[in-house]
Write a structure and sequence with these properties.
Helix content: under 10%
Mean pLDDT: 95
Number of helices: 0
Structural class: mainly beta
Low-confidence stretches: none
Distance between the termini: 40 Å
Number of strands: 11
Length: 117
C-alpha cells in the first residue's frame, strides 16, 4: 500500500507565494517519478511539474520561471514552490508518485490553491 499526502494549499493574492509539500509512504521503493498536477475550475487535470529520482525536472510552459519543484533526497517527498502566483493558477493541486518499473500510479487527495486578483 502507498499513501500520498499533500499539504500547503491556501488562499493568496495575485503576486504572492505558496509552498506545497507531498510525502509518499508505504511500499515506495519503486516510485521513481513524482509530480504535481492541478485541476482548475471547468478544466481537465493537467501536469504542472515532475521530478525524477535523478533530479531532472519538467514544467508546463505556463509555470516556467515561477514554480520550482524539488525533492528530499532520502524521503519520498516533493515540494512545489510557487511564486508570482496568478489567478489562473487557482485549482486543486494533486501529487502523484509513479513507478516506471511497474506502471503503478499513486495519487494524493489534493490540496486547494486559490489566487485572488
Amino acid at each position: 500500500q502507498v499513501q500520498v499526502v499533500e499539504s500547503g494549499g491556501g488562499r493568496v493574492q495575485a503576486g504572492g507565494s505558496l509552498r506545497l509539500s507531498c510525502e509518499a509512504s508505504g511500499r515506495i521503493s519503486y516510485i521513481n517519478v513524482m509530480g504535481w498536477y492541478r485541476q482548475s475550475p471547468g478544466k481537465q487535470r493537467e501536469l504542472v511539474a515532475t521530478i525524477l529520482n535523478n533530479g531532472m525536472t519538467h514544467y508546463t510552459d505556463s509555470v516556467k520561471g515561477r514554480f520550482n519543484i524539488s525533492r528530499h533526497k532520502v524521503k519520498k517527498m516533493v515540494f512545489l514552490q510557487m511564486d508570482n502566483l496568478e489567478a489562473e493558477d487557482t485549482g486543486i493541486y494533486y501529487c502523484k508518485g509513479r513507478s516506471s518499473y511497474t506502471s503503478a500510479e499513486y495519487w494524493g487527495q489534493g490540496t486547494e490553491v486559490t489566487v485572488s486578483s
